[in-house]
Design brief:
The termini are far apart. The protein has strands at 3-7, 10-13, 18-25, 33-39, 46-51, 58-60, 68-73, 78-83, 92-99, 112-113, 117-122. The protein is mainly beta. The chain contains no helices and 11 strands. A hairpin with a 6-residue loop joins strand 5 and strand 6.
Length: 123
């Protein structure tokens, strides 16, 4: 059974850093584009960043550009989200997801989802 499992979330002070990981299992995700999304309380889920299957292409939301970096290690079936200069508004549950195809910022185009990991940034 295909599964995505996020880890690395936690509580951090504003200006700090965290690295999220998303481990895939149950099938090969090496040909999938992977994305990170987040959802804050009372808000819609929003796109954060995406990476192509080869890692050669990436995209990020304007709100995180220059602060967050997405990467992947296909040998480990793992995708990462390095988050730096964190702000209180980055507080949310972060989800990773996969799709077969190119980069996309639309959550409706992703078909496998993890359970999410909580990131809380204190001011």
């Amino acid at each position: 059974q295909a599964q995505l499992v996020e880890s690395g979330g936690g509580l951090v002070q504003a200006g700090g850093s965290l690295r999220l990981s998303c481990a895939a299992s149950g099938r090969s995700f090496s040909r999938d584009s992977m994305g990170w999304f987040r959802q804050a309380p009372g808000k819609e889920r929003e796109f954060v960043a995406a990476i192509s299957w080869s890692g050669g292409g990436t995209a990020a939301a304007d709100s995180v550009k220059g602060r967050f970096t997405i990467s992947r290690d296909n040998a480990k079936n793992t995708v990462y989200l390095q988050m730096s200069s964190l702000k209180p508004e980055d507080t949310a549950v972060y989800y990773c997801a996969s799709r077969y195809g190119g980069l996309s910022g639309r959550d409706s185009e992703y078909y496998y989802w993890g359970q999410g990991t909580q990131v809380t940034v204190s001011s």
